Amino acid sequence: MHNPRCSSALSFPAMDYIENRPYDEIAIGDTASIVHTLKLEDIQLFAAISGDMSPSHLDPEYAKSGLFQEVIADGMWSGTLISNVLCTQLPGPGTVYIDQSLHFARPVALGDTITVTVTVTGKFDHHNHVTFDCRCVNQNDLIVMSGTAEVMAPREKVRRQRMGLPEVRMNDKTSQYRRLIAMAAAPQPISMAVVHPCDHDSLMGAVKAAQANLIVPVLIGPLAKIHAVARAGDTDISAYRIVDVAHSHAAAKCAVAMAREGAVEALMKGSLHTDELMAEVVASETGLRTERRISHVFIMDVPTYPRMLLITDAAINIAPTLDEKADIVQNAIELAQVLQVPEPKVAILAAVETVMSKQRSTIDAAALCKMADRGQITGGVLDGPLAFDNAVSIVAARTKGIKSAVAGRADILVVPDLEAGNMLAKQLEYLADAQTAAIVLGATVPIVLTSRADTVQTRLASCAVALLLVHHKQSGKTSTVSALARIKTPAR
User: Fold this and answer.
1) Residues 480, 485, 491, 492, Cα dihedral to 10°
2) Which residues partner with 347 through β-bridges?
3) What is the C-alpha separation between 430 and 450, in angstroms, rounded?
4) What's the angle, vertex CA 213, arms to CA 209 and CA 214, rounded to 5?
5) What is the C-alpha separation between 14 and 11, in angstroms, rounded?
6) What's the pLDDT tens digit per position in 397-417?
7) CA distance 33 to 115
8) Among 3.40.718.10, 3.40.50.80, 1.10.10.10, 3.40.50.720, what is the CATH number of 291-442?
9) How many Cβ atoms are within 10 Å of 226's Cβ, its own excluded?
10) Domain 17-161: which topology?
11) pTM of the shown model
12) Which of 168, 175, 216, 397 could pair with 402 as two cysteines, CB 3.0-4.6 Å apart?
């Protein structure tokens, strides 16, 4: 095995400098070793780097039925430990790998503590090569791997300030996506009007959602454009109903009419502007209004936050009044309950934690909390005003002396206006690598209102949310005791 560049798999000991042992300082019988305990993060990181996605290493359920009946590390993970010793200790910096042979005697499982020792067995002066015996033993002193290595040792002494390794955080970027799809696996698919699916992502979002058994799509738009997009993507749409209309405005009008008549159970925005669709939805005589204010919710999986996070309203209500905010909060609470958060914690956001007469957002926050106390808003635990840091960080809340059941544990963030909400959601998506789904609530049917820049996965997860809402409404129940209760929420 030839590898001209050495790399360490582990962090260095707590020293300020790293130095090597040149060829002339090495003697036969010299040894060096390291000790490391296998953690889940080691397995995940090795899989991410190597591309080895074997379920023996990553899927506990599959591993139970395998030869070793538990999750084990890839054998080559132990090989990186040998590289660590050779390239950082003996000989150290400047070492060039020439050859490596390995024999794998037994598996390394989670929690096993591995001691790796290399011992010099030979030296060859004409080209500065050094051979090593390599042994890896576990906490029971049983050999898990053995072999030999040959390296070209450095000629010159090297002493360098030790470089810190970058922090690596393992994030599962599709955990929320999979959770929503799993929750939606039990109910039957819903009929959904897909409004003007005249670009690749909007059409493929509908097709993928249909293939996942989430929706039965009705494609509404110019027939020629829809077929052209399908041909360009080599996608068969012959199984789906297409309603041929002249343009996007006609598609929005037709979709809303079908929803009002009960011909479809939900809507999904395609490649048209949000205003164009929503103008038809909110039309006083022909739209889909209810007594509740229509509002938008982002459902976000933020890798650095331990729970699903709902942000509202970031797309519909520009500067909502207090009464409108009450409806926005109630919509979000009821959505959270459908998503198996029985009593969601609602943080009403502002710039500060105190009520100030010059900041309307703080007054609205205090009023919303009192409305919840009086039963005007039900189903959740409200607190506000709360600054963003206090809403999501227990440490920040404690530092500021805030005692609250919501602070640091928020399930729902209610923003003061659309601009704040839109910027917050996009910052989490683009800077914190959050995954999103999006839904419009308060109309007679749920509306999947994704951005034209959203991925097919985002559209698919949003369809799953719409399906759960439709079946929850059809059940006629006000809690999650329904078909959803059969599905346990995975721990994060």
Assistant:
1) -40
2) 383, 413
3) 16
4) 55
5) 9
6) 888 899 899 999 999 999 999
7) 7
8) 3.40.718.10
9) 24
10) Thiol Ester Dehydrase; Chain A (3.10.129)
11) 0.70
12) 397
